[in-house]
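Exercise: predict the fold of this chain.
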Amino acid sequence: MSSNPSIFTSPAIDQLPLVGHELVEELRAGKHLVVGAPGSGKTMLLRQLVKHIEELGAKPEEILVLTPNRASASKLRDAIALDSKKPSSTPRARSLASFAYQQHRAIKPDLKLFSGSQQQAVLEDLIATSPNAPWGFDLLTVRLQGFVQELRD
């Protein structure tokens, strides 16, 4: 087995590039990278992969799927929870930024960093107290919840 992550691009677990004993060993290695175009089946593959890893005996807390953003992590986390027969005390899908934040807080718990909701509150406050519309947008636009979320992200 190589130390590089496995690359799975197929939309179904039974179509993975490895079969039988090789697949079990590769899954236990714990490093997988799923790449593909939108709509190619990445989410479905990840759901099936997590379910399969759990069936091999992994605890839910030992499984972590990293996603590029908060929205995809939330969607995938919900889908994995629905597929799983085991409860988890930790999220099984996180954004890369959320994972980095968690790791940083574990190393330096006394260092203050803003969580996503804290960032959102600060931005909402800054926008609400701005004397005129910033960034060339009208006041109605900058007060929209979606605008604040996009600005934060």
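Check your answer against the key: The beta strands are 6-8, 32-34, 65-67, 93-95.
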